[in-house]
Amino acid sequence: MGELQLAVRFTCLSIMNILYLYGQPLLPKMHYLQPFSVSQLDTLRYQATTIVAARLGRAEPPLQREVVEYLLDVDSHMWSMRRSKANFFRVMSLMSGAVAILRWLDEVGRWRNPVTTLLVHVLFVILLWYPELILPTVFLYMFLIGLWNYRLRPRRPPHMDTKLSWAEAAHADELDEEFDTFPTSKTQEVLRMRYDRLRSVAGRMQTVVGDLATQGERLQGVLSWRDPRATALFVAFCLVAAVVLYVTPARMVGLVVGLYVLRHPRFRSKLPSVPSNFFKRLPSKIDSLL
Q1: Can you tell me the distance from the alpha carbon of 124 to that of 262, in angstroms, rounded to the nearest whole number?
Q2: Same domain flag for 174 and 260
Q3: pLDDT digit string, tens, across residues 63-115
Q4: pTM, whole model, 2 decimals?
Q5: Segments forming the whole domain that contains residue 223
Q6: Per the structure, how many domains does the chain have?
Q7: For residues 282 and 290, what is the distance between their CA atoms, to the nearest angstrom?
Q8: Rg of the Cα trace of the chain?
Q9: Would you tell me which of 35, 98, 253, 284 could form a disulfide with 217, CB atoms 3.0–4.6 Å apart?
């Protein structure tokens, strides 16, 4: 069996009109002045799907309603293990650049490459002494990245990617679950197995959400006096920091902080830092949950 890909290319007579459209809203003005509610959007989407399915059902050869609904992503809000994996790895791929930058900064701070670390020191001092060069440097850097990536630009139009969609690595039961009707038409044994699998995935998500809530509550509890000693320490630190920052020039403070962050590993400790220990000891509402 082969694979048939259809590409439609749109051309324009004026490139200026196309560039002008990039700054225009996607929907008509009335949609933003009097927006629809979520229920109204669902109703309109259902009616549009019904109209398209009815017209294509009278075509020759006719298309079934299930095919039209699949093409229009009517069930995109339904649970699918395959789509969940695909979206998760899309997020991981999106964050890979930020993770790579953080790893590079960590290597710079640990002096893995002394030459690179010294160059970063020089660049940091230059930008600190001439802060008006920060934004031009950032935009120039993005301009150079864009020129560098021009040679790697896509040569062909995008198409359905089975690897990105995790269609090749999906199990038969996952595909059967995705194409199942709503309400389901499966037996109790199959539903019990899928329910247990869903509980396992939801449990991991619940743990991540709980950790995020815990960190946010600790940050919120710094000034809430729930822990009087911690709040008193933080308030005293804020007062001292305000006086020091008022007296000391901002460039000197930035220079000291930057050199402290980029200090040699010989002057580092393998134990967690004092601010990290202080933050982890702040109270949260996790102990109040049942």
Answers
A1: 10
A2: no
A3: 888 888 877 877 777 777 888 888 888 888 888 888 998 898 888 888 888 88
A4: 0.73
A5: 186-288
A6: 3
A7: 20
A8: 28
A9: 284
